[in-house]
Prior knowledge:
By secondary structure, this protein is α/β, with parallel strands linked by helices. It is 31% helix and 25% strand. The protein has helices at residues 7-15, 72-78, 89-112, 196-227; strands at residues 35-38, 45-47, 58-61, 65-68, 118-119, 129-141, 154-156, 160-170, 176-185, 192-194. Strands 1, 2, 3, 4, 5, 6, 8 and 9 form an 8-stranded mixed beta sheet that branches. Strand 8 and strand 9 (176-185) form a beta hairpin. It is globular and about 55 Å long.
Amino acid sequence: xxxxxxxxxxxxxxxxxxxxxxxxxxxxxxxxxxxxxxxxxxxxxxxxxxxxxxxxxxxxxxxxxxxxxxxxxxxxxxxxxxxxxxxxxxxxxxxxxxxxxxxxxxxxxxxxxxxxxxxxxxxxxxxxxxxxxxxxxxxxxxxxxxxxxxxxxxxxxxxxxxxxxxxxxxxxxxxxxxxxxxxxxxxxxxxxxxxxxxxxxxxxxxxxxxxxxxxxxxxxxxxxxxxxx
Length: 229
């Protein structure tokens, strides 16, 4: 059977992940030569022209990096004048580390579920390895749990929002083959007590959905072709 995965077929791999909602249409190309392969109001998926994913039998998950929304700390602290309620750099560093580890774990676990993909942490020159690189950007936490000596409590109707910035990269050449975006917000409900646990639960729901949809899309494209042999 011809295992070739065409550009149109490979696009499905990331379409299921979804993309960031923007008020303006996304550009048709990126500075590194990727082309827009789906253009809708809430979509931005880019792919290298004629990229083929059929050659990859090994996969690696790159540790997730996390970045807050621009000026998030300034905006939050301006609304909380008490020094005991303000976010410090150490709070942000802790949140980024914990969320990054959660993100990496979810994507690794999704690809490790049976029937598992062959995951590697190291590879040799010349090996065909596709890297899955999930990143979280525009992290906006409504009520962060900070290390404060005070006994104040925070309440909010939504934990906040964040955007997935996902790339599929050739391990040998470091060339980005596919790039996709997806923004999610914790749905607003009734106002409730917010802390580290509730914030993590909200983040986990988003991460689980992203990782599950990527795994389903990979199964649909990569494994559907092998089943036809």
